[in-house]
Amino acid sequence: MKNEELEKEITDKRTGISYTLVGDYYIPNLTMPKQEKITLNKYGRLRLKYLKEHKKAEYTILLVENKLNSHLKEIQEIAEKNVSNLIEQLKAKSDLTEDMKNTDPLYWVGTMNTIKNQAEEIVLKDLIYV
Question: Domain map of the chain by residue range?
């Protein structure tokens, strides 16, 4: 059969996949559904990197099922909330007061940085790298 005699588009009755004739070959008409556009923050990017490098099967499943963006969005929202809550809890347990901002700013900044780092380490260990 010559190329002029072939149908330009066909549909496989068994699978329901449609094909378009390109040259001498039928190419499947496969498209990815539209995904929600999100902006990844630090935690979303770290989670994505971890999935790609260490959890390839889970990454592929989320990508194929079109759930990757919603997963990353949920993880980063939970991570931000958890870090904020942990910072408040750790700040309450420390001897840090708002007066120290004015009286001993270096101590206040150093202690706040330590508290923030502790909170982030906990969230990274419990939420991002699992």
Answer: 1-31, 38-128
